[in-house]
Amino acid sequence: HVQLVESGGGSVQAGGSLRLSCDASGYTRNTHCMGWFRQAPGKEREALARIDTGDGSTTYADSVKGRFTISQDDDKNTVYLQMDSLKAEDTAMYYCVADKICVGWAQAAWFNYWGQGTQVTVS
3-class SS at 109? Predict the structure, then answer.
């Protein structure tokens, strides 16, 4: 089993920055692919970014490309989402996700492991 715990959410003014963290524990052999989703009220969950913890490769959704950066700690059990130039439309609950591989990363159903979420509010 895998546990994911997010932190770093909060309130920020438009144009500001936040950094989210996600700590993975448990059977981390199942977390070679880690990423971030978000869900705003009344909307579907949206894939934002993913990282292959083995080779460090990353992919981003067009909506956040150039503004958000996903990275990992040296131990590869912690991933970050640096969010810059935040906009009001970035307001959502942000979720850390993990699974063995990244093939279907853009689909929420791909990931078996989800964190509890952390709220980001941009005003």
Answer: helix
